[in-house]
Every structure is written in C-alpha cells, then in structure tokens.
Amino acid sequence: MNFTRRQSILTGLGAAVAAFLPFRAFAAVEDNIAEFTGGAEPGSGGITLTAPEIAENGNTVPIEVSAPGAVSIAVFAAGNPTPAVATFNFGPLAASQSASTRIRLAGTQDVVAVAKMADGSFVSDRKEVKVTIGGCGG
Amino acid sequence: MISRRDFLQAAMATSALYSASGFGNWSRLAAQQALTQDDLLNFDTFGNLTLIHITDIHAQMVPILFREPSVNIGVGGNRGQVPHLTGADFRKFYGIADGSPSHYALSSGDFEALARSYGRMGGLDRVSTVVNAIRADRPEAILLDGGDTWHGSYTCYQTQGQDMVNVMNALKPDAMTFHWEFTLGSDRVHEIVEGLPFAALGQNIFDAEWDEPAEMFKPYQFFERGGLNVAVIGQAFPYMPIANPGWMFPEYSFGIRDENMQAMVDEVRAQGADVVVCLSHNGFDVDKKMASIVTGIDVILSGHTHDALPEPVLVGETIIVASGSNGKFVSRVDLDIQNGRMMGFRHKLIPIFSDVIAPDPVVTAAIEAERAPYADTLAEVIGQTDSVLYRRGNVNGSWDDLICDALLEEREAEIALSPGVRWGPSLIPGDITREDIWNVTSMTYGAAYRTEMTGEFLKVVMEDVADNIFNPDPYYQQGGDMVRTGGLGYRIDVTKPQGERISEMTLRATGEAIDPARSYVVAGWASVNEGTEGPQIWDVVESYIARKGTVTVNENDSVQVVNA
Question: Does any CB of chain A come closer than 8 Å to the CB of residue B467?
Fold first, then answer.
C-alpha cells in the first residue's frame, strides 16, 4: 500500500494519541527535514530505507539505509519526541553509502531517511513501522 | 523463454484440464455418494516435477472434525477475494454442490449433519497413504511441511513435540519451515532441529543480536529431482516474537524481509535453479503481496492462515497453493519445467476423508506408540456438549465462547479474553474428552491469568489486535483472528483505521457502557508476557465442563461487525 505523505502523517497522529505523545512532535520532523535540506523538497528514488513492517521490540528497531552517491544521509523517527535519529556522512573514499543501526520508536510511526547527493539534490524514503502490544497468530 | 501471456494461457489450459478431471469429477462422484480412495488420489501425472504440501497440522495425528469458518473478512484489496469467501459464497465461486463432500471438507454450513455423513478427516496414517501413492507415481516427488507441526495436542505437549517429530519422520519430508515450533523454547527447537533428517529452512530467521541469518536455519535447499535443480526457500512466520512469547526464543528475529527473499531468489537462480519454490508460513494475503513484490518465485506453498483452496491463485507468474490445516488436506502440485521456466502446472487439493483413505499401517503403529502411554488420560470423558464446538471465525467461535464462559466463572472475572488462534478441531454434540479440551488449548504458555484492566486499556488492546487483522496492508497483518471476549460486547467497523474500529464497548452483565476510567477484573490466557501466573487453561476448562456436565453454547450476539 502506498501511503501519501498526508495519510502517513494522519496515521502517525492516530498512533501518537494512543501513545500519549505531544501533538507538536509531528511538526518537529518536518522542521528537522527542512533544516537538513535547507528547505528543498526531497525527491524520491535512489535511496532505500529497510525497516521491519512491525517492530519486534519498539525499544530497538533495526533499520538500514542505502543511497549510492550520497554524501550524507539523515534518519528521522517522525513520531518520537525528538525526531532526529542520526546523520551519516560519507567521505569521497567511502566504499558504499549505506549504514545500519537500531533505533527506539515511541509508537507506530514513519521512519524517514533523507539523503543529500553529491550534486546537492535531496532524495527521501519513508517506511511505516508499527509498534504493537502483540496478539496471537494462527 | 515464454512470454507472460503464453504462461497465462498454459496455466489456464492446465486449470481447465484440472477442472475437468480433478476437482470437478470429485464433486460429481461425491453427489453419487461413491467416493473412493482411487477417486481422491486420481491424478493425470503432468510435467516433470511433483511437489507435495502439507501444513499447519497442529499435532493432529489422528482423524478429527474441523469446521471451516463462516466469517473470514477480507480488507483493502482482498475484500471479497479468496480466501475471504465462506460458506455458500465459497461453494458458488468454485462450483461446489451443496451437501457434497467438497462442501463438507472446504466450507461451512450444515456442519453437524455433514460431519455425521462424511466422518472425520485427516490422520497422519491416511496422509502417509496419499504421500506413498504420489511417490509411487512419481518417486522423486518433494514433500514439504509448512510448519505448525510440533504444537497443538496433549501428547505433543507432554513429549515437547517428540511425538510429531517421530511420526512425521516416518513420512520422510524433504524440508520444513516454522512457527509454533519456537514456542517449545529455543533450546528444545535446537535439540530437535539438530537431529532432523531433512532441511530446516527460513530465509527470514535471523540472529537477533547481529541481525544476520541464523546459522541453524538455512535460507534454502537445492534438490536434484527429475533432472532439475529445484530450489526450495523457507519463509517462517514473520511475526513470531510479537504474536507469540519472544522471551521463549530471544536469540531469534524474523520479519517478512522480502528484500532478502529477493536476494535469495536471485542467488539460487544464479546457481542454476530451474524452478524456485517458496515454502511459506506467511499467511495467504501476505504471500499474495510478497508474490507481487518478489520476482522469480514459481510456486508459493502457503501456510499459517489455514485456508484450503481447491485451485491455486495466480499472482504475476507465481502460483500460490493453500493446503488447509489439521491434516485435513494434502496438496499435490505437478509442474512442467523447461529451460528454467515453469510452463504449466496441474494441482489437486486432496481431502483426507479418513473413512475413505486406508491408513498406512506403519504410520498407524507409529502414532499408536506415541499415544499408548497416555491412552486412558486422553480418552477420559469430561462432559457433553449440546452444541457444535468450533473455533474458526473472525470475531468468535463456539469453542472460544465456552472457554470465555469457563474463565468468567472459574476465575470469577467480569470480562474474559481468549486468543484469536485458528487451530483446534471441532466437535459435534456428544462427548467432550480430555483430548478434545487439550486440542483447543494446548500450548507452552497457557497460564490463565486474572488481572485488572481499565476500560481505556481494554480499548487499546482491542484496537491493537483489530489492526493486526484488519489493517488494509497485509504486511501489517499477523494472520490470526480477533481476540475473543466474554462478558464484553462491542461494535467493530473493519474499514476504519486503528483507534476508530472499536466502539460501543459494553459490560454484558449490566448492559452499561465500559467506563474508560474504571478497572475491570479480566481473566484470560496465552499472555505473551514472561512470568504470567495462573492455573493452566485446560484445567480451567476441564473443571468448568466437569461441573456443568453438559454445556450449551448459544449464538454469540455480543459482537456487531459492520462494513464487513
């Protein structure tokens, strides 16, 4: 399913209410991204964010991001009180422009990766990661 | 190389052929009440490779009754699509006559009468007869077990899965993937897997600490059969640490990992695979989505959601085969593979009518050997039921209604919660034995807790579980059913987003609306939390049934489903 950005944000809001997060958190991620891109609207393609659809443990969610040709990749957790997670910088001798880490997610939300390419353009990818209290399988 | 259009024509040609000589014929014979083992096994051998698929046996070694669901709602793109057709709609879609054996085996409706006519289904000794017959026809056939094998019965619990391991080994599978097996705990899983005489597969079974493929479970296995290089890639249940207690297998991480699935498909193709088979425990809708994203899989043998479909579903150039549960069915899939391409297929979902298919005496003896030490305990009659007891249904089943009644009374609770699992055979009015109770409750985390929850928290729980079933994106679904409630009524709109699906929560005893601020005494079982305390659920249910003598489960009107 392709979420539009607006839908994603609305979904994020729903999750935030459930997780008792401050409303302001979601404006914060847009501010953070704008700060990273200098206000430029990121394009799509050329960047791959890999994250689980449903987190096994919201306290340590493995993610991986790859953007061949990037000089810098920033990762944001849109629903966290402090959305900025990490910024990876790649020097000219970097063999590959990819990174993996684990992040903590306060609830179901979008994880957003934005890459600055060598020509100064920006691309982004986002994945919804669900944080659930669990259920029962078949 | 053939084009996609050629492929589709080939596929349609074979399904037409199949409809004429396989399933359709079986239906007609059924109408004549002339079902024989030869009819059930009849198959025009096709192509150059045969796959045999069985899945979700849930430790049912002997024949059982199993009522298929009457409510199985599809959401998003799967609304109204198979496997979300039930009862008369299912029969109409597949051209199945009312009252026929196919009606009884595959769909709900008139269950008690048909069960009395057609008898029990399954039994691994009957399954063995079918497997042996297929192997006699095509000796190099590959037998694949989709998992949920070492869980779900009294003897399986007492032997920590050893009974099923021993009996399945007699059937000589070639590979297996996993789900409930892990609830034996990782030490026990390691112990069994180390001794398995066949491949234990799961491309999505990862080491939790390093987020790397787990050493014990290979992503795939090659088989040289019929002059072909056959690659079988395993896909374990993706959401085990969420749907089941992750603390029992903390070394492992799962997930769908479709990017790794694509990498594995590419890897086996590069190594010369002529055909790529995915042995999956994803669940049907997840498999459909995965087939639309990952390219190069010829066949997905689908498990987990317990769907039994008489025809494969085609997604792109991948066929998806669903083979039911509890030993009721075996799928035979014949493939024609030429120059690394699947040119066509022929398929038959073989129903294991236990009174029609002769048991394989070797496997009967193996089953009896496992059951003999417990025979008296298993057979003890605890009480009687006036009602059909079944589990499948999106929001309730009569077995679960009974379990909730038992929890409410035995644990003196206001509200009961029972997990929406899909395993557990059915009963028609008559005796309830201890084995029957264990068949619907047996698990390694069956403690029946008693706790307090606020109305607000109950709502959060219900919304959370509802999203695991009714999220319109299959990748966010876990494949079970809605948590069953006793003492609590509610309304659910399956089309709404999380947080808005559940409304009108009502305490049934008083008819009052659930107060978000008030605490309610809640009894339940199958908590995924470590350290859960309480009596085992099978003891709770046994005590209740023994006290009642005869149980009656009335039509459940406590849940109102809208926009289904």
Answer: yes
